[in-house]
From TrEMBL, chains A, B:
Identification of the protein by name: LLM class flavin-dependent oxidoreductase
Taxonomic source organism: Pseudomonas typographi
Classification of source organism: Bacteria, Pseudomonadati, Pseudomonadota, Gammaproteobacteria, Pseudomonadales
Domain of life: Bacteria
Domain Luciferase-like span(s) in chain numbering: 27-386
CDD domains, A to Z: Nitrilotriacetate_monoxgenase
Length: 445, 445
């Protein structure tokens, strides 16, 4: 069989597009309804997606104007806790992988390692963890009275956090459990290990109080495309999420990251590169573009600017709406995303108001509008052209945007031999073609 | 209808009794299996229980000998993260309440408030939070390099923690959501509130990024029976879990706590008092007692002492096994539990070895062994005698211990008019006869 692409269903609220909740027939109340999320997961599973994915944030947006007015009024900005949500979905599905973000900035490694190990047990091996550093003062203020850590410190903390989590996931060897009712021996103490980690940010003794999970550890996903972020992913991650605006840049990114993977001595194919794409699929190209235009027209500029201010961690309310984004030397938030936004703004000569509308739409991810064949052509070109290992599909409006992709684009990819017709394995690692890692302690024996 | 008693199904591993996992036919692998937990929740729901409840700990036990040997070898001591587990069970049930422990010592209030609000949405109003303070150095060492906080500091932190959580749950008023697609107004900013909490332990700005949940806030459960614990419950909790060895003491406890509830100006019936009971149910009294004796015989003394050392936060390995527990002036762990253990040990003249076996069994909760009629007689006597508002049923071995209770004891209680034949409401607050609290911000209007 030829090389197969991987697909993630990246779910955001009632759609990635900031105006999705305003569509006639949209149901913004779905944001807190269990039946809505179950149905989405089951649709993605019917489409044989590798995984369903939820991002996360730990505050409402309020960097624009340093108040909640714009974001509460114009954004469908509430978010359920993704660990509880993955617990629900583990029971509502049986094959598809389930992944979510947890911040290394405002959590502790023991709790995160335990939660994801638990989810891996409850899903029987289908869990992924998207490792992020939080970039926003609004989030910081829900966890203390200090502004957010600076970029390098965030990544130092993230790296130590992941090292501790890896140690905890290894702390029970696979054969630690004895379950010998006759002798009364439940487990073998020499196969359960203290970690005794003492580092710059964390002191964690271990072991975990959850036995080793079906995948050994969850699939590790990383989403930062800064230089530090790329290196972090090349060393530690199984999957990298990225926003790539065109195929040439994506090919260069792919080469650069895979080179770093080799430099870290990891095997070919150990890191899957998955750019985001927002597909508008319809029976004709015109219909798809009309739907896209309808949504774009409905983004309130302040909705997009509230999102952008939050991503940049920078108050944009001080700049005039009808002039271009001023040249900002440095921002404290998401730096690689900001670079894309700056390029877009200059290239197209956008005012801040226009930039707000644009960012509220695709948030600098790539938009495709066309027939199922058009979309499949584009994805095939990127995949065969060495620009990626697959895609994070970001339905602009839900649930219809996912339904349409599953009903129309997936079969087209299957016909071309690019995508599985059914799941072959049972764990997310198996879907992604990744090996199950042994415990470091078993290796020593 | 006469006053009805409330029942919680308190689930621990494969049974509360430390030797449950050794029974012929026991399946200790169930400890990490989703199907096992789903089936238990569905059984309890068939039995019309008010709620299913999971306790939690944040470390393996290692106070005995300050190493893992006794607990890993002899105890079925692993525990899944209860938030992920309640997420799973929210989807596997539709009426029963779902409650779990989260520590105020090793969590932060924003995360806990958000997780439980999320679970309340995903279960459509069926969630309870058991508020605990952690008492153990082994837990502390998974979250830093300091030993556990002292008793009063733990409770000060717990109280501030709960106050912040209550504020966050109120931060979205019930009518904050507008969902007006026509005007593009998602929610009304004047009905979403910053908290701006600055206290001794926490600085939390808020608001929560989850709208107000179906119950307004989860049912609040408290499980400490120390003087500070009682006062905490009398002021803030909806339910109190307690270990009461005999009816006279339970009646006195009931009076004392209800007096404190009145002193806090709360309504009659606002706090439900639920002692634990471990029932062995069989067709004859002899069979029930034989099953109890079989389990007691199979507790390894070190299994019980590992649990007891952990509860006391005190290394018991330094005392001779065949002499009585020495008089200890003070211990740093669970103080009310320790008092019960000391009384038991002195009353029955137990050696440390015997005490270990005994503690591994009921852990100082009350054991009932008999026919369904015997058990119902006892529960009725306590309930009608003003000793409690209901019971936390602690099945000694699972799943059979819960099956038997649901099939035999519940119908007997129903025949006597003491327990519901079906759910009347849809939320846990409704099952317990508790009002839905308004948001503090709505009240001000």
């Amino acid at each position: 069989m030829s090389r197969q692409l991987h697909l993630g269903a990246f779910i955001m609220g009632v759609g990635h597009h900031a105006a999705a909740w305003r569509l006639p027939g949209a149901a913004p109340a779905n944001l807190t309804r269990p039946g809505y999320f179950k149905a989405l997961a089951q649709t993605a599973e019917r489409g044989k997606f590798d995984y369903l994915f939820f991002a996360d944030r730990l505050a409402l947006s309020d960097r624009y104007g340093n108040n909640l007015d714009a974001s509460v009024r114009y954004l469908a900005g509430s978010r359920l806790d993704p660990v509880a949500l993955l617990g629900l979905l583990a029971g509502a599905t049986s094959r598809i992988g389930l992944a979510a973000t947890a911040s290394t900035t405002f959590n502790d490694p023991f709790s995160v390692a335990r939660r994801f190990a638990t989810l891996d047990h409850l899903s029987e091996g289908r869990i992924g963890w998207n490792i992020v550093t939080s970039t926003n003062d609004g989030e910081a203020l829900n966890f203390g009275d200090q502004p957010i850590l600076e970029h390098e410190a965030r990544y130092r903390r993230a790296k130590e956090f992941v090292e501790v989590a890896l140690g905890l996931w290894d702390s029970w060897e696979d054969d630690a459990l004895l379950h010998n009712g006759h002798t009364g021996e439940f487990a073998e103490p020499s196969r359960v290990h203290y970690l005794n980690h003492q580092g710059e940010y964390f002191s964690v003794r271990g072991p975990l109080n959850v036995p080793r999970s079906p995948q050994g550890r969850p699939v590790l996903i990383q989403a930062g495309s800064s230089d530090t972020g790329q290196d972090f992913a090349a060393e530690l991650a199984d999957v990298i999420f990225t926003a790539q605006p065109d195929i040439t840049k994506a090919q260069a990114f792919y080469q650069r990251v895979q080179q770093r993977v080799r430099e870290h001595g990891r095997a070919e194919g150990a890191l899957k590169i998955m750019p985001g794409v927002m597909p508008f699929v319809a029976a004709s190209r015109e219909q798809a573009q009309a739907r896209f235009a309808e949504l774009e027209a409905n983004v309130h500029p302040l909705a997009g600017l509230a999102l952008l201010a939050d991503s940049m961690n920078h108050d944009l309310s001080v700049y005039p709406l009808d002039e271009p984004l001023p040249a900002l030397a440095e921002i404290r938030g998401n730096q690689s995303r900001f670079k894309l936004v700056q390029e877009l703004s200059q290239r197209e000569g956008l005012t801040l108001r226009e930039l707000g509308k644009r960012f509220g739409g695709s948030r600098s991810h790539r938009v495709l509008a066309g027939t199922a064949k058009d979309i499949a052509d584009d994805l095939e070109q990127w995949f065969e052209g060495g620009a990626c290992d697959g895609f994070n599909i970001m339905p602009p409006y839900l649930p219809e945007g996912l339904d349409t992709f599953v009903e129309q684009v997936v079969p087209e990819l299957q016909r071309r031999g690019l995508f599985r017709r059914d799941y072959q394995g049972s764990t997310l690692r198996e879907h992604l073609g990744l090996a199950r890692p042994p415990s470091r302690f078993s290796q020593r024996a």
